Every structure is written in C-alpha cells, then in structure tokens.
Amino acid sequence: MWSKGDGGLVKLYPQYAYWDVAPNSAEMLLVAGAMVIFAGLTWLMTGSPFGLVFSGKLACAILVANIVHDVYRHLFRDAERTKAMKTTVSGIPWVAAVLESSLIRMASEGGRVIGILERGEAYVLGKRFDWFTGRAGKAPQMEERKNTLQRFSMVMVLMAIATLY
Predict the structure, then answer these.
(1) pLDDT value at position 49?
(2) For the whole model, what pTM was predicted?
(3) Closest among 16, 8, 39 to 117, alpha carbons compared
(4) DSSP letters along 71-103, please?
(5) What are phi and psi of 141, to 5 degrees?
(6) Residue 127 parent element (H or E)
C-alpha cells in the first residue's frame, strides 16, 4: 500500500497536523473489525449472532456512506469543480470514475491506518496531515473536516435505519 508511510508525516511534521472532527473510513472500519472479533467471541460463548450482524451492518454502512457521499460530492455539491477540470470524461464513465475514486480514497486511508498501527503510533489516529502545509490557509482542513463529519453522520443514519430491520 502506497499510503502506509503517509501517516508518519503527522508525527514527523506535527506543525502541519490537525485533529479531525470525525473518524475516516479506515478508522471506522478498524472499529467495525474490532467489533467483529469481540462479537465472534460472544457468539461462540452465547450463541447469539447479534454482534456479528450489527458489526456486519456497520461495515456495510461505512462503505455505502463513503461511496454515496463521494457521488454526492463529485456529481452535485462540487459540480462546478468538475466543470472547471475540463475533462473529456462524462456520463457513465464519469460516474464509474467517481465510484473508483471512492474506493481508492478508502484504500489510501486504510494504508495510512495500517502504517500508523505498524509503527505503534495509535495515538495519532484521528489526526490528519495538511498536504498544503498551511499555504492554502485553513480551507483544506475545514473541507476535510466537513467531509468526514458528513460521512460519519451518514454512517450513523444508516445504522439507525439498519437497526430497525
């Protein structure tokens, strides 16, 4: 994974790191994975599959929320950015590219989390590196915080709906 070293930048350059307001997809999937392990042990001891079902729904909600949010962001909320790119890709190929970019972003976030855990730096989970190193002001941080909060909120809404069924 190309992004395993990216998480190291938070510790290496703390002046360019900031706390996010919500976990990213990989951090949420890490929690869901830990829940699967705990739920599996609970299932073996009690015979109740509730925890496994819940953690499976959580993992699905995380993936769906991230993909839906990226589709919303690229195709609707920030559509003007798309027009400014002057790309020749449009229609179904553009939608496919948006879906693929969502999976790539989640894989990148996963690589960062894996790198952080491998280096024993779990205390920096939740911190983000400002790739613009302050040159673009607070706007990139504010947008990243907005996006992660919206994705996290969507996961919570999906889980509220999923627990009803």
Answers:
(1) 94
(2) 0.90
(3) 8
(4) HHIIIIITHHHHHHHT-S--SHHHHHHHHHHHH
(5) -65, -45
(6) strand 127-129
pLDDT tens digit string along 40-94? 999 999 999 999 999 999 999 999 999 999 999 988 888 888 778 878 888 899 8
Residue from 144, 111, 133 nearest 17 by CA: 133
Cα separations (Å) of 2 from 9, 16, 88?
Answer: 14, 20, 28
Residue 65 amino acid letter = A
Q: What pLDDT does residue 9 have? A: 93
- Contact (Cβ atoms closer than 8 angstroms) between residue 128 and residue 141: yes
- What six digits make up the tokens of 53? 């079902």
pLDDT in tens, 115-158: 999 999 999 999 999 999 999 999 999 999 999 999 999 999 99
- DSSP-derived secondary structure for 20-58: -SS--HHHHHHHHHHHHHHHHHHHHHH---HHHHHHHHH
